[in-house]
């Protein structure tokens, strides 16, 4: 097992990464506060892992709530189901919520924990690759609005992140690929050496080589933990974690949530950001090709949906959380491994990107 720390002073917490951690109550129990534990999961994950998760908390008062599965349920109506369960069971403000599932469960459970009785503790047990490398770490929690991704939420850090890499055994191939999009992102924004490694090992990761997966998860979490420790509330460099997301979130909302997975949408979005970076005179043709090769090898899309017009993109992107005084701020690349945030670009280049970076007819 490897343990990393998200260094946030007296709110620091561990990320434990290893095989069989769902069988190790001693790792999880020290992070429970109070006597009541509510496990939040969904209809797909519950039959796979809920019994094991419940056994981790033997001796506590354990309840669970099983939500419908899908990005289209990451909303206020589903959030209410968690509050209903907590209130019905008379859970008090010392209770602990446990997110058992992918990023949707992690985000919605985290937000429930941030707001139930003005804030209770929670533990992340992520079971998708995407959640293990990104969403379980860093404390961004929330739900979607029909017109914008993650528009309602809070920063609320977990007590611990428990990554049992064995849970990936049951994950569908398409979901594994979606997780690789966020893994590749770390290489692009700040870790060129990791990008080089990924170019050589993406096929091993797709083949679920356990050692390589463990390494990719550790290095991703290390990158994320560093950024979050330096800028917890996205006053500066944390925005780099949003590479491809202004485009990608527009795709997710524009396609009605769930048709394009988050990882798929941001892969196409990172290519749009890459193409614009090339138009800005920064990214070379060769680097853009390396990006496209990496996403294609990972079985991810590199072009946005055919039926989303530049006008629709602009309408949705105008609601992005990084917008300042009406300007859409974007994360762009100087090179592979070197990202920056800017609102200072010729509007014409954004338009050209939306028009030109399209699947060839
Ligand atoms: N908070 C953050 O920092 C952050 C970061 C990245 C993404 N996100 C959010 O995360 C969400 C995407 O997360 P995701 O990709 O995990 O999607 P997801 O939560 O929808 O999970 C994908 C699918 O895998 C299933 N699943 C989960 N674990 C499984 C397992 N072990 N075996 C079999 N099936 C399993 C789920 O039920 C679901 O059908 C998006 O809403 C995105 O906005 C948040
Ligand atoms: O942790 C962050 O910061 C990120 O931006 C990670 C992203 O991968 C993630 O999708 C996040 O939820 C996007 O945040 P948002 O603020 O754009 O909603
Ligand atoms: Zn993301």
Count of all domains: 2
Name the bound molecules. nicotinamide-adenine-dinucleotide, ligand LNCXM5UN, zinc ion
Say what the CATH topology of the largest domain is: Dehydroquinate synthase-like, alpha domain
Terminal Cα span: 48 Å
Helix residue percentage: 40-55%
Poorly predicted ranges: none
Record field, number of beta strands = 11
Count of alpha/pi helices: 13
Strand order of the largest sheet: 1-2-9-6-5-3-4
Compute the CA-based radius of gyration: 20 Å
Protein name: 3-dehydroquinate synthase
Catalytic activity: 7-phospho-2-dehydro-3-deoxy-D-arabino-heptonate = 3-dehydroquinate + phosphate
GO molecular function, one term: 3-dehydroquinate synthase activity
Keywords: Amino-acid biosynthesis, Aromatic amino acid biosynthesis, Cobalt, Cytoplasm, Lyase, Metal-binding, NAD, Nucleotide-binding, Zinc
Features:
single chain, 361 residues, alpha/beta, Rossmann fold, Dehydroquinate synthase-like, alpha domain, 2 domains, two-stranded antiparallel sheet, 11 strands, binds nicotinamide-adenine-dinucleotide, binds ligand LNCXM5UN, binds zinc ion
Task: Describe this entry's structure for a reader.
The chain is built from 13 helices and eleven strands. The chain has 361 residues and is an alpha/beta fold. The strands form three sheets. Strands 1-2-9-6-5-3-4 form a seven-stranded mixed sheet, sandwiched between helices. Strands 7-8 form a two-stranded antiparallel ribbon. Strands 10-11 form a two-stranded antiparallel sheet. It has helices spanning 25-28, 46-56, 76-88, 103-115, 129-135, 173-190, 192-206, 210-230, 245-254, 262-279, 285-297, 310-317, 347-356, and strands at residues 2-6, 13-18, 36-42, 61-67, 96-101, 121-126, 140-145, 148-155, 160-164, 330-335, 338-342. It has two domains: 2-170, Rossmann fold, CATH 3.40.50.1970; 173-356, Dehydroquinate synthase-like, alpha domain, CATH 1.20.1090.10. The longest helix is centred in the middle third of the chain and has 21 residues, at 210-230. It binds nicotinamide-adenine-dinucleotide, ligand LNCXM5UN and zinc ion. Residues 134, 138, 140, 149-150, 182, 234, 238, 241-242, 245, 321 line the site of the ligand O=C(O)C(=O)C[C@@H](O)[C@H](O)[C@H](O)COP(=O)(O)O. The ligand O=C(O)C(=O)C[C@@H](O)[C@H](O)[C@H](O)COP(=O)(O)O is lined by residues 134, 138, 140, 149-150, 182, 234, 238, 241-242, 245, 321.
